[in-house]
Specification:
Blueprint lengths: L1 E7 L3 H12 L4 E4 L4 H6 L5 E2 L1 H9 L4 H6 L1 E3 L1 E6 L2 E6 H4 L5 E3 L2 H14 L3 E3 L2 E7 L7 E6 L2 E12 L17 E17 L6 E4 L6 E7 L2 E8 L10 H11 L13 E15 L2 E2 L2 E3 L5 E2 L7 H22 L3 H28 L7 H16 L1 H12 L7
Parallel strand pairs: 1-2, 1-11, 2-8, 5-13, 11-18
Antiparallel strand pairs: 3-7, 4-7, 5-6, 9-10, 10-11, 12-15, 12-16, 13-14, 14-15, 16-19, 17-18
The structure holds adenosine-5-diphosphoribose and P-hydroxybenzoic acid.
Length: 392
């Protein structure tokens, strides 16, 4: 097989890219290791910046998002001493976020790509890539039990954190920045009426977050050990911790219900640079992950492919590599701002067992400062709704 752009991975990064390219008349093939059913049901993040919503709209994939997604004008932070209200349209000004599950984004993008006659090969796992330094890189993959090859002009590595594209770059050419936080998040999806506001909480027992997926579905998280054994968490223990950590003192605020899904997410920042090697360009989780506390992972993936698609369209139309050559630098500016914000929110809201009494006091003072400062709340609000796009 051959194509112009070989895209490895049908997560948000690969799917957004495939649709933008398809619309511009650039030919591409998406290879996805897992089944369609698997990628469509993987529960993950759920907060979309306005830029991400706009991209769904531009691609004609925003109809269900506008019907079922929940426009969210507020973010609350609970802590020992009160609640901080971050009123997004007032602070940003005029902006909001939309709560809509990542797997719903993935479903909508897959449907849009297939409806327009695009190719996604599911259960097609890329094994290795040849010829990245030349002009005809080749992706070797397995599909329906056969070894196949996809020859391309450009490879887009959109295969997530555990993919193979990043590791196709010689180690000495990559600079890696890594911070592994000493805790994880235990997340549940529950059939229960959610909190009306997105609520992050700093409690002495650890962080908690009350989010939602629909008016009847709650998405809730509690800080846990990095290597937490989920078997140690009975439903009762999960709900008890959530009531406590969300300061639901008389138990009347947080509704309980059957837990439909549960899992542990690592809390880690990892950035590899540059985001390019020869004819391969990396985007999304394949090249950077951020702690979930900022809700930036999916949005950064969408921002990367916005820049990449523009550079690729220029390359295929007029043969210029100027934008492609700037791709990594352009994206990394936004990525590092996302890392900074996610790192800040993670440090502000979690319990660190290694904290000295001094550091605990500073964290508490920071929360009290944010509560009392319009400037500090504006800083959180403008990052949460999404910073303006960089010039590229
Ligand atoms: N061959 C083909 N596909 C692969 C391979 C491979 N060797 N390895 C991984 N994949 C696929 C995965 O199965 C997955 O569907 O690549 C896809 C990568 O998708 P994501 O992990 O969702 O990454 P990305 O598209 O960058 O989206 C970033 O995902 O991790 C979340 O919350 C994070 O919102 C962020 C978003
Ligand atoms: C979610 O709804 O899953 C969610 C919301 C906010 C975050 C992380 C996850 O910071």
């Amino acid at each position: 097989m051959r194509t112009q752009v070989g895209i490895v991975g049908a997560g948000p990064a690969g799917l957004f890219l495939s649709l933008i390219l398809q619309r511009a008349g650039v030919e591409c093939v998406v290879l996805e290791a897992r089944s369609r059913d698997y990628v469509e049901s993987r529960v993950r993040a759920g907060v979309l910046e306005e830029g991400t919503v706009a991209l769904m709209d531009e691609l004609g994939a925003g109809e269900r998002l506008h019907r079922e997604g929940m426009p969210d004008p507020r973010l609350d932070i609970r802590f020992h001493g009160g609640v901080i209200h971050i009123d997004l349209p007032v602070l940003t000004p005029g902006k909001i976020v939309t709560v809509y599950g990542q797997q719903e984004v993935v479903k909508d993008l897959i449907a849009a790509r297939l409806a327009r006659g695009g190719t996604i090969l599911f259960e097609a796992e890329a094994a290795h890539i040849d010829g990245l330094d030349g002009t005809r890189p080749t992706i070797h993959f397995k599909h329906e039990g056969r070894d196949e090859t996809l020859e391309c002009d450009i490879v887009a590595g959109c295969d997530g954190f555990h993919g193979i594209c990043r590791s196709a770059i010689p180690e000495h050419l990559l600079t890696v920045y890594d911070r592994i936080f000493p805790f994880g998040w235990l997340g549940i999806l529950a059939e229960a009426r959610p909190f009306p506001e997105m609520s992050y909480s700093n409690h002495e027992r650890g962080f908690a977050l009350a989010s939602r997926r629909s008016p009847k579905l709650s998405r809730l998280y509690v800080q846990c050990a990095a290597d937490e054994d989920i078997a140690g968490w009975s439903d009762r223990r999960i709900w008890d911790e959530l009531h406590m950590r969300l300061y639901d003192k008389d138990g009347g605020e947080l509704f309980e219900g059957p837990i439909l899904q549960r899992g542990v997410t690592p809390v880690r920042a990892y950035i590899a640079a540059p985001m390019r090697h020869g004819r391969m360009f990396l985007a999304g989780d394949a090249v950077h992950i951020v702690p979930p506390t900022g809700a930036k992972g999916l949005n950064l993936a969408a921002a990367d492919v916005r820049v990449l698609s523009r550079a690729l369209i220029e390359f295929f139309r007029v043969g210029s590599t100027e934008r492609l050559d700037r791709y990594s630098d352009t994206c990394l500016k936004r990525v590092w701002k996302g890392v900074r914000y996610s790192n800040y929110m993670t440090s502000l809201l979690h319990r660190f067992d290694t904290h000295t009494p001094f550091e605990r006091r500073v964290q508490q003072a920071e929360l009290e400062y944010v509560a009392g400062s319009l400037a500090a709340r504006t800083t959180i609000g403008e990052n949460y709704v999404g910073l303006p796009f960089e010039e590229d």
